[in-house]
Structures are given as structure tokens and as C-alpha cells.
Amino acid sequence: MLLRTSILLLIPIWICTGHTSFHQGRPRFGMKIEHQFKTEKINNFARGYGASEGNFDQKLDHFSNSTSTWSQHYYWNEQYSNTKQSTVFLMLGGEGPESKSWVENEDYPFIKWAKQFRAFVFSLEHRFYGKSQPTSNLTIENLKYLSSQQAIEDVALFINTMNKHFNFNSPTWIVFGGSYAGALALWARQKHPELIAGAVGSSAPLQAVMDFWQYLQVVESSLQQPKYGECANRVKQGFQSITELMSTTEGREQLSKTFTYVLILYLSLNITLYSSFAAYDNKNFINTPNSYKKYIKSLQNETFSDNNSKFHLLVFVWRFLLFKCLEEIFRLNSVVAFHYSGDERAWTWQQCTEFGYFQSTDANTIFGAVTPNNLFINICRDVFGKNYNADFIAESVHKTLKYYGGADGYTGTNVIIPNGSLDPWHVLGKTKNSTNPSVIVYSIKGGAHCSDMYPVTEKPNPDIIKLHEIITNNLDKWINGPLNQVTAVKINNTWSGPQEFVETPTRIKRSLKPTRKIDNNKEMTREYPTSTQFRKMHFGRPPLGFTPYLGTGESRESTGYENGVFSQPYDHFDNQNPKRFQQRYHKNGQFSKEGGRNFLIIGGEGPANKNWVLDTKLPILKWAQEFEATVYLLEHRYYGNSTVQRDQDKPNSELKYLTSLQMLYDVAEFIKQTNIKLGGNPMWITFGGSYSGALSLWMRELFPDLVRGAVGSSAPLQAKMDFYEYLQVVEASIRRYNNTCAENIGKAFKEMHELVLTPEGRKNLSDTFTLQPEWNNTSKLDDTSVQYFFSKIFGQFQSAVLNNGVNNGAYSTGYGISEMCNLMLNSKKEPLQNVADFNEYMITFYTGTNFTHTENDYNEYVEYLKSPSDTAGQSTRYWMWQTCTEFGYFSSTDLGDGIFGSPTPLNMYTKMCEDVFGKEHTTDNIEKKVAETNRLYGGKNNYTGTNVFIPNGSLDPWHVLGKLNSNDSSVVPFLINGTAHCADIYPARPEDMPGLADAKQRRQQLWCHKQKLEQLMNVVFSDECTFQIDFNSRSYFIQKGSYFDRLRPCAKYPVNIHVWGEILVRSATTLAIFPEKFRLDSEKYCQIIREIYVPFNNLAYNGFSRLVQGNAPSHQSAYTKRMFEENNVAFLSWPAESPDLNPVELVWGSMKNHIKNIVRPINLDELIEGVSCYWNEVMKPDKCSAYINTIHIRITDVIA
User: Fold this and answer.
1) Rounded alpha-carbon distances, angstroms, from residue 1017 to 567, 1007, 1133
2) What sequence ranges are listed for the domain Tc1-like transposase DDE (predicted)?
3) Is 423 helix (H, G, I), strand (E, B) or coil?
4) Which of 1097, 1003, 1148 minimizes the C-alpha distance to 599?
5) Which of 464, 484, 604, 836 is the most buried (most CB within 10 A)?
6) Which residue from 426, 484, 271 is spatially nearest to 360, judged by alpha carbons?
7) Could you tell me the pLDDT band of residue 647, with boundaries at 50, 70 and 90?
8) Domain boundaries, the chain
9) Where are the alpha helices (DSSP H) in 77-179?
10) Based on the number of CB atoms within 10 Å of its own CB, is 89 exposed (0-12), middle (13-18) or buried (19 or more)?
């Protein structure tokens, strides 16, 4: 009886979403369901005829020169139209056959509006659905013509064709659609406002998304409403029962028998039912018509027809006697009719190549964790080929968002966008109100998917009634109102995230000293203790942090070493909070000189080790010696000794101040106070690796006035919730070393997937890996326990790849890919035993003790993370907080087919966030936090810092989230072939990969060059020049037959202007332009200096810049010299008259070439405009810096 209840529970769940017989979140035959009502009013008498259907020649490919066409099906009805007024309503078809009823059923609001506004009515079927088949079959080559972009151009051509065919005179076209077709309607208005006056897009999913985990979250929320009683709990119990049955052979046999009966009606891939079986390596053990292989084979069929498969010819009729609550929500009391065509394969193609929309169970809902996103990725690969993998799908979704703008970036006007609050698809719709009044976003309380498109019931939803009134009023405006110049044309305001960074708040005046030295002999030593129980990879982070110091190099405390603390506020953004903490720092000044440079190493997610400023073998110490710099190391707040006190009465209360932004302001405050102590405005360069590498780059981005340059090694600039690429790179790195090694790992994990399905198999796994607590024949495992076990085992492989071959302690000689593969290639043992041996090898390394067991208790680990007593555990807890509230970085197995299978979906990590930090840390909230982080810092693609060096290792999984290319010459990404995480920050050695040596040399060259450039940071180069329109006789010699009109006339007599300008490394200042026949004497020159240079010098350099000028008489006169003395103008000793050296001379040369060949002015106004535009638009910081960069090269040439 329990099983029967469980199965019955599953069927209505998807009905709750308004859908039946699902395929990847889509009801069979489309999301716009045709309802067959008891009564239909079809008016065939108004003008003697009703609806008609036809076909017209549609272009096959709108984005090429091909002239191929095909026959597209459409319906039309002109009985309501006014021959004197051309108002046309167009209902767009979606991912299913289009129905004639959309142009004739007068119960539909669409037809009611057509009658009211005397509109001609069309319904256009979507290409590749229903009768509108552009090709004879659905091969991949043919499916390349199936896309939303092609469909939108279909609409445009259809409108133009119908205008001619029916002789519409200045027609007003309004497009309608629901669900995917609703998105098409809105996008069509956005792309073709010249053809379409307005659009109504009901339940339109404008936001493409690969992992649509929010779907089931909304379903759960709907079921949990008080008026539905215990419905949600019964659903949860049903899924838990199925999970238990799945863990035994007998239970699966029982499920198989039951599902044979149920699934014969439940046609396509029911996500919840099917994925419970497919989650464990997609093993085909359910012997039903809906098995995975059978399902994939059906999708691979390229010649669908209504007669070739009884498997797809069904009428699904279902009444819910047990679950009245679900029936009440969606009121599906009538028969739903379906007519099958080949649309499952077509819609799967669109999901895999455009939208994603994969409804995983990654949200920790009542449905359990039975369906990872990996399942859908595998379907794409299995159906369409190996190229359609996770990367391809992710890039396709990104292109779709870029093309249309997504929900927030939608730029269409004259649109109405309704969504139902109960509809899971509303999450992907536009729900935020627009600043444009012609864009109406409307939420229907209690509304389901496209519920506003269907006839109003006897007890109508008040919100739907109100919405219909709003649509009626706006249709009247679009059809009969005056032309609105703002909304009548396309608006191109592309959405972008916030551009402003948080400004430094007003600080509370301090009464205490900001820094305090600590006796080095009594140094606080809060390093990692001997506690070893939970030392392991956690959320992609090794147990000792991303950049631990494990070396044993020269680290004697020098005479310049200082160890101290710095007073920091708890909260930089609340000046009413007086609380402060002591932040640890280390300093090594043994190489420094007075007024020299400062290198600042920013601490990351672990205690700061003093050897980072003492070990002279480290690259940063070598550079410090070369550039005579002081080296600082500032510990990250919370980690190590830089603790923030915890409020024992409030769980997680202390963690609210643990953010990357607070740490960046810590660094800024430290630099400011150190500058006050040192005096002047010294140069600071920041360094960091991994997370602290990102902090280093963000410091330069947010505080360019404090930081002159930054190095960020292996810096993950892109926050990402589902970091499936981590294991993708792990596998690729192993295969690069030895493909057989990777294959053996795959064989072992495949066997592990099979063993975990039976009590005997779990006992075998427990014995093989010495699990603690052990699994036996009676152990009852939930999904999380299995996921946690697998994450621990593949975590060992993550660690080996992450630190492969880095010159850091034991990693320099072992615990990498080589050692891993040595074990995995042991032919005397089975691959599974080799994996167990490697697991033992890594545990022994991390714990520093003999192997005793493999920790395997999820709940115990969660309790440990809630309040760890040891420093390592605290660091793990703190880093987990940052991943759950800022970055994500969850390394799931949702990457499609891989050697590790798909045992650990995203939801295990998000569940751990909830279990450790509280229920408010839901998947939804984590995703929002990740998006906020990318908006704040720009991610890897919109990073705006300059003067930065960004090395990454090709073997390092984190390089995927780093910046790998740039158009800015001052931003230098460098991918080091064959190296791992942060390999460049450790000492060089002869056996280093060539790429690593090149990176270290390249970085040194950049800093040498930047060192020379820094000498000119406060130098202002000035010069003057004359521009003129050349004399021309206006005599032209042209060849017979040439086109003379293309020649522009030139001025007969020369016209000139005189200009004076100045440039510096960071910008160009105001350009002074004087009229023709102007003479620059001493008085006028001094006026320029007083009004332009002096104010700029005081504002930008506090009066400390140095001026470079020419040797013209007006520059050297006694009058001018007195002015210089009065205004404290300092000079750079430089042969300023030399055109080979003053970079402004190069500017004048480029500008003259531009004026002569591009602008070609014929009067004074054009000349002035051309000079001004060039100076203002071209002379940006990067251009100024490039000109000044040439000085040192030209010095060498002049001397030679």
C-alpha cells in the first residue's frame, strides 16, 4: 500500500505545475495546451464563413544568402475584421502543433479582443512543429535551422507577406503568445518594432538558464500553502519511500512492476520518476518501455510520424481522487487532448542549443535529490552527439541571454507580461517593474501557467479579470491612440549591472593607535594544529588552504622583520558600530630604502604564515631585493589570529562581517594608515594567490588611487554557483598525463555506482574504503549520505590535480597526478582497489598519521562545522561561509558524462549550507548572492582594473574562473601550460615546466618595465603645435571616366589654429586652442600654466608633479621663471626640445595624420572640431600610457 501511495503521489506532482506527460519540463505537445471544452461558440454566420488554414513559402535560413524555402502552416479568420481599418492579431505557435481553435474559439480572450477591435486574426505554427516541417527528417544537420532567432524572422516575413497578400493598408499588428511562444512574441516586438505595434507574452520565460532548479522550488511552495493541508508532506513521504525502495534489489523490482503499469500512460521523460533511476550512473535496471536506452532511441528517431509508434499515440485522461488539493489548484476537470508530431526531439534540440531550462532537484525540496542537472546534459550528448556537452550548452545559454538580454535586459516597449504566482516558469519571466510605462509587468495571484489565455471560469480569479481590462485598454492605445514616439521605435538601452562601487564611509574618529608591534620572541603562533579528523578537500579547497606555506627555505627573521597587529573596525560600512578587532600583519624591511616601494601580500582563507615575507627563495622576496621594497603580509579577517569575537547567543552572528568587500576595505585602511606613518604617497603593489589573488586584483580595481599595480595568481574572478568545470578540468588533466589512468578511474567509479545500489555492494564499499561509520547490509542510506561519500573520494583526485608539481613542501615531490596514476595503473589490483589505495595515500598525507579509516558521516561533519574548536576547522567553516554567501564555487558532478559519473549534484552543497548556517541559506539566496558578487566586481569578463598581471595554470581547475584574455595592454593574463594552482608564487627550480619559467620571467620583465614607468608617474609632458588647412589650387587632374564627386573641396588659402596640451601616464588634461594668427608670448604662456597646469597639479598630485616643457623663448623668459617660482612648479631634467623624446610630439604627429586623412576640414570650425574630438575621444589613459611607454626605448636609440 505504501508503494502504491508513493507512485500515485508522483503523478499529480507534475499536474500541480499545470502539465501532464512531461518531457524536460514541457507537457507533451507544448506548453500551450489546447482545452476541449464542453461548449464552443464558433460564429460561422457573421460573414458567411469562419476559420481557414493555409501555407505560404517561408525562407529556410534567414541568416544566409540561401534562397531555399519551405511551406509553413497557418490559420486565419477574417470574419471579425473591419475592411476600413487594418488591425491584425497574430497568435504565435510554440513548441507543439498549432490549433485552429486559436482563431475561432470565442471563449478565448484572444478572440474576444479580436471581435471588440474588429481585428483580422492569424495563428502561425512554429517551424519544425506540427505540420510546419521545413525538412523531411530531423537530422542534426536539418535541426540547425531550428532556433528562436529563425522563428522570429519567420514572423517578420509572415507579416510582410500577409500585408501584400491581403492588401492591408498601414496595418497595426499585435502579437500574442504563451509560454515559449510568449517569449517569442516579446522578442519579436523587441527585434521588429517597425512591424509590430505591441505584444502580449503570457508566462514568457525570457531568462535562459541551464539549471532550472527553481522549478520544483515553486511547486513545493505552492503545495505548502495552508489550505492544501498535508499535501506537501505526503508528497515528501512518497519520494522518501521511493528512495528507500531504490536501495534494494527487491525494492527496485517492486518499483519496476508498478512503473510498468503507470508509465505505459506516463509517456515521456517524467523527471521525478525517471531520474530516480538514472541518477546512479544512468544504469538501465528498470525494464519498462520508458527505460533510458528506449527513451534515447526514441529521441534519436529522425523520421517521426503519427503512425510509426503506438508508444507516442496517447490521450492522457486522469482524475485525482486522492489529491483533491492539486485538483483544486489547477482545476483540470476536463479532458486534455494531445496530437503527437515529432516535437520531443525538436524541443530537446532547442533546450540543448538555446535555453537549457533543465529542471533538476538542486533546490533541496520535498522531491529529494533524485535528478541532477547532469542527467539532462547526458541526454543532450546521447541524443545529438558528444559535442553537445556541458560547455556547449552553457555557452549556448550565454549566447541566448546576450542576444535577447534576458529578463532584466529586455528592451522591448508596448508589451504586457503576465505571470502566474503558482507557475514555476514565472521565475524566468520579467517580474521587475520597468521604468518605461509602456512595459507592463503583471503578477496573477494564484494563477497557473498561461492561465490568463484561457476562458474565464465560473468563479474567476480577480487578478485575471483585472489583467484582461489592462490588456483591453492597452490594445486600444496601440490601435487607436496617437503615435508615441518613445515606444513606437526600438529602444536599445542594454541592461548592465551596477557600475558604482561602495564609497569609503565616514569613519569614527580613533583615540587609539592603529598599529602595535609584538615582541617577535613572543609571537602569536596560531597555525594549523594537530587535529586531523576532518582534514580533507572541502568545497574544492584543500584542508590547509589554497596557498599554504609548506616550504623549508631560508626564513630566518631579519633585522627588518616586524610582527604586529592593526586595529580594524568590525564593519567599514556602519560608522555607528564601535567594535574593533586586531588584524595580524608581518613586515620585512631588510631590502627597503627610505621612500621606496611597498609590496603587500594579501592573506587568504587561512592563517598568515610569516615565512611569506622571510623566505628569500620566494619570487616576491627576490623582487623586493631587486626593487628595494618593503614586504608586508596582512592576514585576512577571521582567519588565523585576526579573529572577530562571536556572540554566543546568536548563531553565526560573528560571520556577518566576513566578506571579501570588508577585507578589501581592511587592506585600504591598512595602506592609508601606513602611508600616514611613512609620510608622502608611496607606491603599493599587491600580491595574492587563489582567492587572495582575486582580492589583489579587486584592490587595484576598487582602489587605484592606493594601489599602483597588482598580481593575482590563479585568481577566480568569476563567482559561480555550479562550478561543474572543476571536475571537467580534473579529468582533462589526468587524461593529458595518461589516458589509461583516467579510464581506470572511470571503471572504478562505475563499479562504485553499481555497488551502492545493493546492501551487499554497500558493505563491499565500506570494507574496501574502511568507512567510519561503516555501511552494512541493514544500513539505510539517504541521498545525501551517498553523495557525501562520493564527494570525499573524488575530492582526493581534485586535490592531486590542484597541487600537482607545485614547489611547495611535500607537493614538490609527491601527492600529484604522477603518484595518483602510479597507483591507478597497478595491473595487479582491480581499479576499485587502486582508488581505495589512492584514498588511503592522500588521507595519510593530510593527517600525518597512519591510515585508520575514511570519515563518512555527513551529519557528524555538519555538527563539526557548526562550531569547530581547531584552527583548521574554523578556517574551513569561514571559507564555507564565504562560498555560501558570496562565491558558490560548488564542484558538482553535473558536467555530463565523466569518469566520476554523476553522484554529487549541486544540491548536496547547497543543502550543507542550509544545514550548517541555517534555513535562510537556500539555493535561491545563494544564487542571488553569487550574482551580487559578479555585479560588484564585474566577474572575469567585466573586470575593470588596470596594471595587473594574471597568471593561471592550464592544469588548475580554477583557471576556468580566471581572466584569460584582455584587450587592455595593461591587463596581462598569462596561461602557464602544464602547471597547477598558484605554481608561479613558489620558488623556481630547474625542473619547472618551460611555461612556468616563462611566466616568472614575463612577470619580472613587466615589473622592470613598470618600475621605469613608475619613475614617470608624476611627470606631466606639455607642448604646443600649429594645425592648418593646407593651401590648394583647386586644380585636379583626373582620369577619364573617374567619379569626381567623391573628391572633397579644400580650402584655397591656409587656415590655422594653435594648440597647447599636456599628457601624463593616467590621462590627458584640457587642450587649449587659440585662434589663427595667435602668438604665444610669455604672458599668454604663463596664463595657460596658471589656469590649467597649476590647478591640476594641486588636485591630482598635491603639488608634487614635475613638468616637462619645450625650450621656446616664452618658456625660458625671466617673466615665466618668476611665475614658476611663485607657483612652486618643479621640472624633470629632460632634453625637452628633442622630438624623439617628448611623447607629446608623437601625439601631434598622429593627430595631424588624422586631421589630414580622416577629418579633411574645409573651414575653421571643422578644423577646431576635428582637433577637439581627437583629443577628447582618443587620448584616453591607455593611449597616454602607450605614448609615454616609448620613452625608455627611444632614450636607448638616441644614446646609441
Assistant:
1) 31, 14, 15
2) 1019-1167
3) coil
4) 1003
5) 604
6) 271
7) low
8) 2-29+211-404, 52-202+410-480, 515-525+547-713, 720-937, 1015-1199
9) 109-116, 140-143, 148-165
10) buried
Q: Hey, is 26 helix, strand or coil?
A: strand
Name which residue leads in pLDDT, 132 or 812: 132
What percent of the residues of the chain are helix, what percent strand, and what percent coil, each to the nearest 5? 40, 15, 45
Count other C-beta atoms under 10 Å from residue 612's C-beta.
24
Q: At what angle do helices 783-802 and 725-737 cross, to 10 degrees?
A: 50
* Interval 74-90: pLDDT, tens: 999 998 887 667 899 99
- Four-residue CA torsion sign, 561, 565, 567, 572: positive
Query: Among 449, 921, 981, 1058, which one carries the catalytic annotation?
Result: 981
Instruction: Give the DSSP H/E element, type plus range, for residue 1101.
Output: helix 1094-1101
Q: For this structure, is 956 an active site residue?
A: yes
Identity of the amino acid at 1039? Q
pLDDT beyond 80 at 184: yes
> In terms of residues, how long is the chain?
1200
Give the integer Cα–Cα distance in Å for 1171 and 431.
48
1017 Rama sector, left if φ>0, alpha if ψ -120 to 50, beta otherwise: alpha
pLDDT at 304: 40
Indicate whether 881 pLDDT > 90. yes
Query: What is the secondary structure of 226-295 as a DSSP string?
Result: GGGTTHHHHHHHHHHHHHHHHTSHHHHHHHHHHHHHHTTTS-S--HHHHHHHHTTTT-----STT-HHHH
Q: What's the rounded Cα separation, in Å, for the pair 415 and 413?
A: 5
CATH topology for the 1015-1199 domain: Nucleotidyltransferase; domain 5 (3.30.420)
Which residues is 583 bridged to in the sheet?
A: 566
Q: Which amino acid is at 1037?
A: F
981 is catalytic: yes
CB 145 within 8 A of CB 61: yes
CA dist list (Å): 1155 to 954, 1062, 1148, 1175: 46, 19, 10, 11
Ramachandran quadrant class, 366 (left: phi over 0; alpha: psi -120 to 50; beta: rest) = alpha
Of 427, 549, 507, 917, the C-alpha closest to 673 is 507
Active site residue 690: yes
Q: Which three cell numbers stand for residue 351?
A: 533546450
Residues 6+ apart with CB under 8 A from 715: 688, 689, 690, 691, 693, 694, 696, 697, 950, 952, 962, 963
Catalytic residue among 956, 984, 992, 1023: 956
Instruction: Compute the distance between CA of residue 641 and CA of residue 865 in angstroms, rounded to an integer.
Output: 19
Q: Are strands 52-59 and 69-77 parallel, antiparallel or unpaired?
A: antiparallel
Q: Which residue has the higher pLDDT, 14 or 814?
A: 814
Element containing residue 583 per DSSP (H, E): strand 580-588
**For 1118-1127, what is each residue's pLDDT tens digit?**
899 899 888 8
Confidence of residue 1134 (pLDDT cuts 50, 70, 90): low
Given the residues 179, 203, 690, 713, the one annotated as active site: 690
Q: Which CATH architecture has domain 52-202+410-480?
A: 3-Layer(aba) Sandwich (3.40)
Amino acid at 958: W
Rounded to the nearest integer, the mean pLDDT of the chain is 78
Domains 515-525+547-713 and 1015-1199 share a fold: no
Over the stretch 199-241, which tens digit does the pLDDT of each residue have?
999 999 999 999 998 888 888 887 787 877 777 788 788 777 7
Which CATH number does the domain 515-525+547-713 belong to among 3.40.50.1820, 3.40.30.120, 3.40.980.10, 1.10.150.20? 3.40.50.1820
> Using an 8 Å Cβ cutoff, are 547 and 982 in contact?
yes
Cell numbers linked to 1097: 597639479
Range 522-527 contact pairs with CB under 8 angstroms and sequence separation of 24 or more: 523/563, 523/610, 524/584, 524/641, 526/607, 526/640, 526/641, 526/871, 527/607, 527/609, 527/640, 527/871
SS3 category, 199? strand
